[in-house]
# Entry
Amino acid sequence: MKLKDRIALVTGGGSGIGRAIARLFAEEGARVVVNDLNLPAAEQTVAAMGAARGRAVRADVADSAQVRALFAEIEREFGALDILVNNAGIAPAGTEREAIGGKAEARLAELLSGQGVQTHWDITQAMTDEAWRRMIAVHLDGTFFCTREALRFMSRRNRGVIINMSSVAALMGLENAPHYSAAKGGILAFTRAVAREVGSQGIRVNAICPGFIDTPMTAPISPLLRTAVLGRTPLGRWGEPGEVATTALFLASDDSSFFTGQWLSPNGGLFTG
Ligand SMILES: NC(=O)c1ccc[n+]([C@@H]2O[C@H](COP(=O)([O-])OP(=O)(O)OC[C@H]3O[C@@H](n4cnc5c(N)ncnc54)[C@H](O)[C@@H]3O)[C@@H](O)[C@H]2O)c1
# Structure
């Protein structure tokens, strides 16, 4: 039991990586607050880990008032917070995703034809203010809002662990998601700065930069694009949410007691820098 009696908050815990983290933390003895925008999904996660081990709370992490209310509930219910996992996230959706998918397929076909690529991404020049702002808001504002509230808990006891979900997008840049890459890069820089800021209070702050992981977020990616990613991944497969969860468990537990301001990247060898 690596997290016996610790209190953890996992944002975006109703699906994919967040759900796997919440379940593993509960198995390791933690009581877990599972936040999600989608309350029934968060409740399913809590049901899967055993109702006594968790609590589902709806909040949009991009809204500071809702985040304050989430932490007020944690204060009332538990009176402390040992671990925060800033995991909630979104990918391009709707027409934006369709445009990216169509262009990706066209570019691959052109590349394979040997005639050179004529279809250009043109993602940044076509991006709306709304698409840019929502991506930054959910990831970067959300990470800041939750970290600000969590530090108010953790600095009372001079201990705590914060884990921020970044991405290989921060390390490599994803050509079809400049807003997502910027948000994840911001999270990485924020992680390093806050780690330095709060180290003297015994609070550790680290990031995880997963590669491509099979979750509902990546499910809409087409078979052709999946194959293209596999071609650049030495382990020859996509990752499982559980493989990110074990990374989070390491960073949450005392096993990583000398780690702060770092990133770990479960990515199958896609990025090795
Ligand atoms: N899947 C991957 O390949 C991959 C790779 C690198 C990083 N990540 C990151 O890991 C995290 C989890 O991704 P996932 O693949 O499990 O996605 P997912 O879509 O399966 O789960 C994300 C969860 O976050 C919730 N959410 C979205 N916006 C929210 C908000 N504003 N407030 C609260 N909850 C919100 C969703 O409802 C959903 O339950 C994200 O930050 C994502 O960017 C994923």
Q: What stands out?
A: The mean pLDDT is 97. The CA atoms of residues 72 and 79 lie 9 Å apart. The chain has ten helices and seven strands. Residues 129-157 form the longest helix (29 residues).
